[in-house]
Amino acid sequence: MKNSSWQQKELIFLVLYAVVFYTIVIRRSLQLSHDHYAKLYGLRPGWIAGRLNDASDAQWRNFRGNLPILTMVFGIFALVANVLKKSFSLKAKGMAIVWILISLAYLFYLHGACILFIIAIASANFFLVKILGRTKYFSLVLWLFNLSFLVCNRIYEGYQFSIFGQRWAYLDNFRGTFRWQICFNFVVLRMISFGCDYHWTDQYNRFDRKKHIQHCDHCSSGKTCYLLLQEKRVTNDKFSFPIYLCYLVYAPLYIAGPIISFNAFASQLDSPQNIYSSREVAWYGFRWVCSLFLMELMTHLLYYNAFAISGLWKQLSPIDIFIIGYGVLNFMWLKFFLIWRYFRFWSLINGIVAPENMPRCVNNCHNLESFWKNWHASFNRWLVRYVYIPLGGSQKKLLNVWVIFTFVAVWHDLEWKLLSWAWLTCIFFIPEMLVKSAANAFPVEGAFMEFVFRELRAVAGAITITCLMVANLVGFVIGPSGINWLVSGFLQKEGLPTLGGLLVSFYVGTKLMFHISEAKQRKERTR
């Protein structure tokens, strides 16, 4: 009872601190945006209270600008696909052909004649899988094939038709509106998934279906969760070329995902998802619209990304650099949240459920493992299934993180700053894994030791959040050349109070996350 009373008082203090912290951050952000807007790049006329809008991020600018036509196109696609399905009672192969025709029309608009490159590489991968899929060294061949194209596509910038002779050179004038080699990164993941799922069909499946159904809220109520769809072995007839091609180019998930395994996709062509009701899908869409309005408020009032793009952050004080860096991380989270949920929403309308990419807020992750499980979560699932477990899983965890994050960096793009981000993340990951192993080896006993352990976890969380900010700023904002400047700025006399203040703030934030997690656990126990 005494412990509960202390935790309630602590929670009140933590909430009050968080209110003060965000009041200071938002107020200072507004002031910085007002004082420096004339020097910032990428600001355009907005629609809220005469304010300029931060359109400095190319990815968000393109998505936002194309949102009306995307919505109209996907609305027509969904209507056509669902009407044909109900009218002709189409099953897997029938729906695969419908979605191939719809998706290829979509891809032709995006990539023009370059669609030929996609079909050619995809076909070569299909025949590779069918010919070598049951052999011992197939996994190695599959990875080498796909990694080769992943790298070559970027080096040769999507290739030119003229390399096949001047008679084909005229096709270079019809390359569409969107570079195909960018989208092809997702196609590579799907081709690997198809190959591995085919290779594993005759192997022993360690997944305990009965145990999972007993412990899963969705499956125990008669629904089918994504994990069960992924681990469910599909029949050999599903590994046909029409279903394979449909999986690679499925329009709602083609541009940005979320990433779905072949098993899960093929399973839902026959039996559409039953996790979400129509009402829940509509509510999902409404929440997305509310989140879009929040983004509009953010980009009209707080010019975080414009500061990063303009390089003006180098002229600011340490505390202002922290505020801009923290704001950029939140902007990036909300941007990807909106993009991924938009495409997932359209996939749900068409009966295909994909993993949620941002299941948890970026401000509710206090260790690296939980952060990466909840940032691009579908990619994390893909990496665990097709890279982490085949490489030995937790038995070789210290080695696996280097392989995984190097692959993630190369998959994103061939840039040194992304490799720097990947290797910095690995360096920060190793101490966390060692501490977790030590903590598991020595169980905590007694109230005092529990208190000490909780405080140490909070301190570790504060340090981890700081490291995450540094790694992401290096990878996506300042680049490796800015590391020395950033470190020296915060370790000087002027920067030390800011460093201490942000560590205290992250310590408080971590303890607040503990309370949120414990409240969720209590709620689950009362079900």
UniProtKB/TrEMBL annotation:
Keywords: Membrane, Transmembrane, Transmembrane helix. It is found in: Membrane. InterPro entries: MB_O-acyltransferase, MBOAT_fam. The chain crosses the membrane at residues 12-30, 67-84, 96-122, 137-156, 241-266, 286-307, 319-340, 456-478, 498-517. It is a multi-pass membrane protein. Coiled coil: none annotated. The keyword Glycoprotein does not apply. It holds the Pfam family MBOAT. Its main location: membrane. PANTHER family: ACYLTRANSFERASE, PROTEIN-CYSTEINE N-PALMITOYLTRANSFERASE RASP. This is Membrane-bound O-acyltransferase C24H6.01c. The lineage of its organism: Eukaryota, Viridiplantae, Streptophyta, Embryophyta, Tracheophyta.
